[in-house]
Request: fold
Amino acid sequence: MNTHEAIQILKEKGYKMTGKRKDILNFFEASDGYRTAKDLIEHMEISYKNISFDTIYRNLHLYYEMGILEKTVLNGEKQFRISCAQHHHHHFICNHCGRTKEIDVCPMDEVANTLSNYAIEGHKFEIYGLCPLCQSA
Amino acid sequence: MNTHEAIQILKEKGYKMTGKRKDILNFFEASDGYRTAKDLIEHMEISYKNISFDTIYRNLHLYYEMGILEKTVLNGEKQFRISCAQHHHHHFICNHCGRTKEIDVCPMDEVANTLSNYAIEGHKFEIYGLCPLCQSA
DNA sequence: TTGTAAATAGTAACGATTACGATTCATTAT
DNA sequence: ATAATGAATCGTAATCGTTACTATTTACAA
Reply:
């Protein structure tokens, strides 16, 4: 997913394209990991001194609903990253910088048969730690 | 982990044993799944009309720090259950009632070698859905 | 260019959690 | 048993992330 693709999706669905929406997309495209709403606010305030919480959260949710962003929760905060979900996968997430690495292993295949009477609706598999860059720093 | 064991741990570490602390343990021993602070407050208010948030959260954290309770976060709320961590394992968690089922599969063995330059500090693997009881209801 | 619905600012409200001073209580040493 | 003392608790305010609301502004289509 990149900014261009995302803009196409928004247009198709009839959403209006604003400068703020483009900047939000650029912010996430330039990040290669999870970012909090607060991170985004700090970035947006450079260009838009008085940007509203409402705008931040409304657009984060919009992008999430449209599959443009992925979401997770860390330390009680929602975190978002550009969607890379062409195929099913999980993430290593750096505790220090939020950068992610794709993990293609998914444990669900192994597990499904031990849960035959259970209706599975979702699962979460995440690995936390320090990425190579943050270890040397 | 059961109430008796937990009381032993508290005594050994020099914590005082109060009626409220025992009741909290009983509440979690009687549950077989994750419960929120709110669930616990509702239960405690039956016996202690004016119990304080402070008491609830202080003791939840104390028990968690001592390994008496396990913790997870669901829908932005911290949830706790009696610890069953004699061995490493994960959980299926019912979205409706919070009941859990132990999962002995752990994907980390498979994954570790693909993260050779990463310092792994933790991981989370949880499966969500409806347990057999909640499906029939 | 104008009309209209969508997007936004500014701000209040919310829910979960944490924090704190004053009071009560469990434990231990007498 | 009792008194001393430090821990536990209450009552409540504060905090944090997030959601919600109204008035205003803006993107886009006619």
Summary: Residues 81 and 113 of chain A are 32 Å apart (CA to CA).
